[in-house]
């Protein structure tokens, strides 16, 4: 696809629902008693994979655009799937399902697309086996023998909301107490939603305690816009001259707002307005205006708060004066693709001064760049980041695969070009 260029961007955009919260609303809704009504659900390919998996375990789910109803069958009401569960491109679906399926009284198996089959699953199978789970393989396909579980005291070796959530979900079924100790705070949507549903869960700083839970109550889940999707428009509005973009109804849970902190630190003109709370999650409208950015260092415990935004933050760094260093981000290597390698290889094609490091990258920004024929590696976040990057490149740029944006943002290109003028 030829990446069309816009000279400036202005207007208001409402991005689709948060991917992490949409997944969790379906999963926890399936395990609750009663009907969970979800509004603002993300109809991206990943969340549709989650729906498909639960339908295959007998859950009645009705989808009407962004409104989804899930008829929960209780913590012990899932049915043995008749076939292997297919999670598509979704790491969240795959890893969270492991936590739910480990303690069932039936066996199951999970696989996904070529990317999922390369993503490490030992990070979830290891703590789950300490709880008594029987899961064969470290990569998909995974074969899970439903087993009685017991609580553990687990110190997380990686900052990962997916690992944390898998252990929490297994903890709902485990005899005794499960304690999870995080080294750095990762997104906490599971803890918030389970708390609202009446699970026996408590959070004390970086430690989470879950006890075997008899039942969950259905709730109304109003999913805010995904800050990971808003991020593309935030950076677009900052780097394009004479631009102003407002993204409305964005989830600003503090475990997700690292990108706002970093962009402000780079000199961005960003306004966060109309902060409110919706179903336990903070929501706001975000306005950005064209700004001359400068370089920064991104490292340490902010990384889990912006991990998925690093490719688009790297785009901001290209147009910022000076040397931006991203470190402590080795987790990027095990996403939909190796996002350190992919960013460095594709950005280099434009003449950008960028160096790969073992845990991140160094970008010397503020210089002119030229267009290129980009590869997305089937990674939605690469496709959308490269589209923003191409806007300020001299000459033409193309994308080998724009369809992969559907994983998290099916209407991305439509919304993008609506802002252009
Ligand atoms: O679901 P998936 O494929 O892992 O999606 C990604 C993404 O960019 O959309 C990562 F590739 O987001 C993860 C995120 O990186 C979603 C997520 C969650 O919903 O719990 C947590 C993060 O992953 P992790 O490995 O840090 O737990």
Key structural traits:
421 residues, binds ligand SPQ, globular, 12 helices, 25% strand, 29% helix, alpha/beta, 22 strands, four-stranded mixed β-sheet
Overall SS class:
alpha/beta
Mean pLDDT: 97
- Rg from alpha-carbon coordinates: 21 Å
Shape: globular
What is the number of helices?
12
| DSSP strand count | 22
Q: Could you give the distance between the termini?
A: 20 Å
Helix and strand arrangement:
Elements: E1 10-14, H1 19-31, E2 33-39, H2 45-55, E3 60-64, E4 67-73, E5 85-86, H3 91-101, E6 108-111, H4 122-130, E7 134-136, E8 142-145, E9 153-155, H5 161-173, E10 177-181, H6 189-196, E11 201-204, E12 207-211, E13 220-222, H7 227-239, E14 244-251, H8 258-265, E15 269-278, E16 281-289, E17 297-298, H9 310-318, E18 322-326, H10 339-348, E19 353-357, E20 360-365, E21 373-374, H11 380-390, E22 398-399, H12 412-418
Parallel strand pairs: 1-14, 2-13, 5-6, 9-10, 17-18, 21-22
Antiparallel strand pairs: 2-4, 3-4, 6-8, 7-8, 10-12, 11-12, 14-16, 15-16, 18-20, 19-20
Helix pairs in contact: 1-2, 1-6, 3-5, 4-5, 7-9, 7-11, 9-11
């Amino acid at each position: 696809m030829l990446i069309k260029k816009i000279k400036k961007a202005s207007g208001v955009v409402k991005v689709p629902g948060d991917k992490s919260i949409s997944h969790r609303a379906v999963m926890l809704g399936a395990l609750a008693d009663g009907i969970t009504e979800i509004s603002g659900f993300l109809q991206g390919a990943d969340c549709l994979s989650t729906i498909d998996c639960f339908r295959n375990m007998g859950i009645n789910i009705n989808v009407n655009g962004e409104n989804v109803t899930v008829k929960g069958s209780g913590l012990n009401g899932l049915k043995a799937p008749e076939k292997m569960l297919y999670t598509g491109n979704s790491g969240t679906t795959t890893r969270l399902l492991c936590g739910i399926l480990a303690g069932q009284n039936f066996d199951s198996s999970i696989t996904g697309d070529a990317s999922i089959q390369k993503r490490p699953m030992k990070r979830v199978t290891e703590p789950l086996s300490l709880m008594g789970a029987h899961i064969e393989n470290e990569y998909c396909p995974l074969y899970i023998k439903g087993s009685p579980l017991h609580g553990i005291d687990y110190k997380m070796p990686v900052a990962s909301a997916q690992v944390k959530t898998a252990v929490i979900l297994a903890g709902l079924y485990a005899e005794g107490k499960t304690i999870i100790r995080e080294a750095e705070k990762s997104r906490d949507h599971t803890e918030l939603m389970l708390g609202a549903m009446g699970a026996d869960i408590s959070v004390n700083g970086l430690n989470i305690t879950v006890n075997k839970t008899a039942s969950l109550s259905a709730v109304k889940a109003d999913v805010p816009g995904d800050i990971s999707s808003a991020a593309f428009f935030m950076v677009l509005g900052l780097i394009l001259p004479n631009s102003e973009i407002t993204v409305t109804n964005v989830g600003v849970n503090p475990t997700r707002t690292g990108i706002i902190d970093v962009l402000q630190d780079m000199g961005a003109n960003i306004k966060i307005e109309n902060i409110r709370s919706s179903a336990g999650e903070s929501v706001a409208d975000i306005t950005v205006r064209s700004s001359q950015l400068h370089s920064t260092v991104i490292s340490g415990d902010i990384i889990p708060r912006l991990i998925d935004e690093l490719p688009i933050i790297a785009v901001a760094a290209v147009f910022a004066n000076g040397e931006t260093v991203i470190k402590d981000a080795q987790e990027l290597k095990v996403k939909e693709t190796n996002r350190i390698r992919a960013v460095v290889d594709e950005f280099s094609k434009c003449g950008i001064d960028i160096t790969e490091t073992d845990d991140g990258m160094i970008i010397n920004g503020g210089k002119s760049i030229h267009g290129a024929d980009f590869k997305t590696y089937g990674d939605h976040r690469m496709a959308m980041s490269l589209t923003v990057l191409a806007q300020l490149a001299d000459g033409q740029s193309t994308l080998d695969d724009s369809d992969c944006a559907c994983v998290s943002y099916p209407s991305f290109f439509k919304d993008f070009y609506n802002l252009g003028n």
